Amino acid sequence: MQDRTYPEFSTRYPLLVTTLMKRPVSLYPEQIGVVYRNHVSGEYTRLTWAGWHERVCRLANALRGPLAVSPGQPPRLGDRVGTLAFNTHRHLELYYAVPGIGATLHAVNIRLSPEHITYTIRHAQDRVLFVDDIVLPLLEGIWDKVSDVVRTVVYMSDKPGLPDTRIPNLIHYEDLLAAQPPEHEWAYLDEDTNATLCYTTGTTGLPKGATFTHRQLYLMTLHILAAQNMSNTPAHISREHLGENAVPMLNTPLFHAHGWGAPFFCVFSAQKIVLPGSFTVKGFCELVQTERVTSVSVVPTIAAMLLEYPQLHEYDLSSLTRVGVGGGALPLGLKTKLEKLLPSFQVSSGYGMTESAPAAVNAFVKKHMVDWGKERLDGVLVKTGVPMPGLEVQVVDEAGKPVARDGASIGEIVMRGPWITEKYYDNPEKTAEVWYDGWFHTGDIATVDADGFIVIADRIKDVIRSGAEMVPTVLLENLIAMADFVLEATVVGAPDPVWGERPLALVRLRPGHDAGATDVVDFLFEHGVQTGRITKWMVPRLITLTDDIPRTSVGKFNKKAVRDRIDEYVAQAVDVSEHVGKTQG
Amino acid sequence: MQDRTYPEFSTRYPLLVTTLMKRPVSLYPEQIGVVYRNHVSGEYTRLTWAGWHERVCRLANALRGPLAVSPGQPPRLGDRVGTLAFNTHRHLELYYAVPGIGATLHAVNIRLSPEHITYTIRHAQDRVLFVDDIVLPLLEGIWDKVSDVVRTVVYMSDKPGLPDTRIPNLIHYEDLLAAQPPEHEWAYLDEDTNATLCYTTGTTGLPKGATFTHRQLYLMTLHILAAQNMSNTPAHISREHLGENAVPMLNTPLFHAHGWGAPFFCVFSAQKIVLPGSFTVKGFCELVQTERVTSVSVVPTIAAMLLEYPQLHEYDLSSLTRVGVGGGALPLGLKTKLEKLLPSFQVSSGYGMTESAPAAVNAFVKKHMVDWGKERLDGVLVKTGVPMPGLEVQVVDEAGKPVARDGASIGEIVMRGPWITEKYYDNPEKTAEVWYDGWFHTGDIATVDADGFIVIADRIKDVIRSGAEMVPTVLLENLIAMADFVLEATVVGAPDPVWGERPLALVRLRPGHDAGATDVVDFLFEHGVQTGRITKWMVPRLITLTDDIPRTSVGKFNKKAVRDRIDEYVAQAVDVSEHVGKTQG
């Protein structure tokens, strides 16, 4: 055996999700690692890393044993295991146990329509479903349409006992675990074994299931941590949200693009992880206070809900040193209020998608910006950022050439790299629509400025084509949202006999403000046209002030639904053409 | 083409060394990225990232073109390219261009004996050698013994023109680059392509060539950056040595275990990299002042040289926020002096070896230590540390079982993971001696304490077997070195008719101190026996006070050479048996 080498333990040591989990268990077995607050009952579950890991081991044994879940062998996927669950310790256990045995985790997006939920379960062919007690009614509602696919349903609840239900052979999660041995030898799987299946929201068609392997998720995690380390930290920005002593609260649902990666990089970092079930304002405040949470990520809507909570002042939120806001432009008024409440509040943007797992473009402080003041730096931190290290991201014109770095030339974002999905599961047609010429095509439109910052301008399908020109709607929306009398805004194309389409702005005012359509125009001239961000012809001539704007399951504006009701919105609109015409740009 | 996917740009996107280099070039093309000071002439070379990268491209074109260097195809290595060079911008160019075209970089350890240098060049079969002007005489001295292997020699110098030499067909590096186009399309190589060949120092035999692939070096880099991000930062420890605004000076020779990884992680981090040629005290001080260096790593000997430099006070060293000391225990007196000179000085230890590329075990601040004071924390930061994230490191007994975490049970360090060498090049016998039972066996002896910190006790071959017991010599050496009258110390076994071997301590006193052998004994009792770190029988009975202790090429004590002269050292020794006998433990 003199020429025996071990490539499987050296050059080909597999990159596996289970490796991430082994670190906190080894470093801090007796420390509290996972805290869950049931958002209905208000009850807490606190687990040490060793205690949590023991549950993951029991779950893995249950999956391989009584649940008969089969592992995959690349390129073949293992059995799919679906979850219909909020952010609980159990969901985090499933995040490791299911991929850990070589099977595929399908975290079902329970915010989709029942039709689409049914579609994803059937398309994924989920053999086992794990369902939260409060989500059971949803599953009961579609049971007849998935019962031929699903072999077993496991019921997850803090309370013992099974409910009355028409779903047969329900198993209680805690009973399942209790019957299993507390140890599991984690296999050295092939790193190309599929680990997760994440369905897109399907606003314009059926959801598509992006596939991710162990290697991909492991590499995304490492690159996120490396990126955090390499970015420059201005003196006024705390780093307490990084490192082991950070206490993150995971508000992003685990069924949205891997909860933005937190279930992986927070575990590997051995941070105490706080899980709030589903977001509630009271739960949020209580958890920050009891667990001394240091860092949260929220969408603007949640930030607004928080500020309007009458009991807010009763809580000690002083541990929060990082409140990242993502998923939409942050209105100026909201930003000012947040800064008053939380002095260390830091606005920070990012861009990603289900298919990029999702880390793709992140807010970044370049070397020469490190001494900038807070206001000026905030201007940088809201404009999306630079590509993640290790990922190739380009903005290309229709010939596939990178656009000029002039902050004005518009192109499509394309990318490739270690953690971009290779394909949609069982969907070669849709895969071929995004993967061609060696790049993944995002369908998002952006510009690149001289610093290399990628600024999202629009979705290709949302672009308004007015005459020969394209109106970048996201740019307009973000501009309008900066007005302190505006809560949020969206811009779509309205049919126009002369131009083909003209932009129509739907604007939701902040409560207590009675601005009118011409105020919106004046604001766009002052902060858009005069600063060179937009040209005069881009200013919407039709403005509808309304609180009734349809949303998607993830809380974004649903532009398709708006376009379906376009006549109704045009009828409500104020025509500001005359006012625009006489305003000087 | 509806089922076209791109695994090569997604699931199988190759992990390549060239990716590391692309980041600073893309982010900061016009900023100074690489600064080199010629330690002989004192002249500076300053290159922007774009300028440096252009040179790497020209070099790659030269390697593929006139130098006819062939790429490898796993498992076959590409042609080996040797370097005999100090830390210069050219050496850093070779670090990227040679692996970048799929060939193997062999950074020859020019501190080895001429015989061993000859051996490594012949064993690696270096087709091309790149040699610094000041190293040329060394190559001329062994030329007759390597000329049948080496096809071409490239001469690297800041000055134009070729020297008079008996080496035929010498090519000047700058002429070679000037003749090439400034662009190179970096190939998407197989990530398993071999990138480097690093020979061990061979203190007890012939050097062995540890092999590393692109994937291995890329993954080590990512894990180092992730580890930096995840470690806890006490308030008194600055993080300014991390992130892009850090300015590291690379003192560790690039021919030692990848210069401890700095040529990879500092480049990926887009830090301004300062290269001092070979270390000189004047060069060190001047570069810190002119480049505002923030971070250096030094061995204790260099720290001592620095403190004794008469002109030290003439330099502004205030930018230095991180002086890591590695490669040996730091004497207490030296530590106190360094702290006076550099208030932000931070002692920090690590453990690694050529075969681990070298990151393996690193100093670490655990969660509960983050509020500790500096003195107490220093006690933690000098005791090696915890395994690198993503690496499996264990201390095992002779049956291969992990030893108890009691800080006393001794075992061998074994490891496995993504960047541990798979094999010694063309040396299956030596490979089989270290790789068996699924683990790489380091030959180093250690204990593990309750916090999981691995504390190096000894090399297996240096262990003193006294009766049925093993005396951990490194532990004794580190203890003795803590005495403020001691500069450094080493402990070896001296033949003993009763016990087989008894420990002999060779102690080098600090200049101006006239302590005697019994003072060493008293110190060991007070700080070793009474604190429970050692037992009374481990205290050496023979102590030799001497300045004449042989060293290896990397500056460590050469215990083999000491043992070869053991009779001489025993003759000089003071027998302290009686003093030990009457001292109470």
From TrEMBL, chains A, B:
UniProt-recorded Gene Ontology molecular function terms: ligase activity
InterPro entries from the UniProt entry: AMP-bd_C, AMP-bd_C_sf, AMP-binding_CS, AMP-dep_synth/lig_dom, ANL_N_sf
Coiled-coil residues: none
Domain AMP-binding enzyme C-terminal: 476-556
Keyword Ligase set for record: yes
Positions of the AMP-dependent synthetase/ligase domain: 29-425
UniProt record, GO biological process: fatty acid metabolic process
Keyword 4Fe-4S: no
Keywords: Fatty acid metabolism, Ligase, Lipid metabolism
Family per similarity comment: Belongs to the ATP-dependent AMP-binding enzyme family.
Name of protein: Long-chain fatty acid--CoA ligase
